[in-house]
Amino acid sequence: MARSSQTDMAVLGALSIQPMSGYAVREAIGEVLGHFWSESFGQIYPTLKALEQEGLVARAGAARAGGSAFTVTETGLQRLRELLNEPVREVPPRNGLLLRLFFGRTLGSAACRELITGARAEAVDRLAGFDRLLADNDAEDEPNSPYIRMTILAGRHSAEAAIGWADTCLAMLDEMEQA
């Protein structure tokens, strides 16, 4: 399977912030980028190997959390800039919750209420997680901090919108049941 230029972008971008092992790259992507991007170990390790063979990353010695640490090379930073300047490729959304709600008449009001209530609870949890991330990324002397905060704020606003949407839908179900 050919590797994605977006996977290259995610890995090179993570390493542009600081040197880290493949495991640490995966953890960083999951913890900080996880609300809008994901990569699996199955994507990260082959990508690191290929990027190393291409001279875009180099081993920087042993990492704290297992394996060799990698650092992005100057050529890798140039490639990252090229990738970041490519047009954004949007992927059509696939939302199982909305698919079920679209056919809610068949599913039934009680089941729809349960789905929406669950989605609301998840959004509340995500909102709390974004607030923790914002608190952890408030270092004024860290040059990446404002940009990281922008992505966290996008996730935070999305979670707030999901809570508002769920509240509106639950009110709609209440009205339907009273009619």
Structure description:
It contains eight helices and two strands; from the N terminus they run H-H-H-E-E-H-H-H-H-H. The protein is mainly alpha-helical and 179 residues long. A hairpin with a 5-residue loop joins strand 1 and strand 2. Helix 2 packs across helix 3. Keywords: DNA-binding. It comes from Catenuloplanes nepalensis.
Largest sheet strand order: 1-2
Radius of gyration: 20 Å
Dominant shape: elongated
How far apart lie the N and C ends?
A: 54 Å
Please give a quick description of this structure:
This protein is mainly alpha-helical. The chain has eight helices and two strands, in the order αααββααααα.
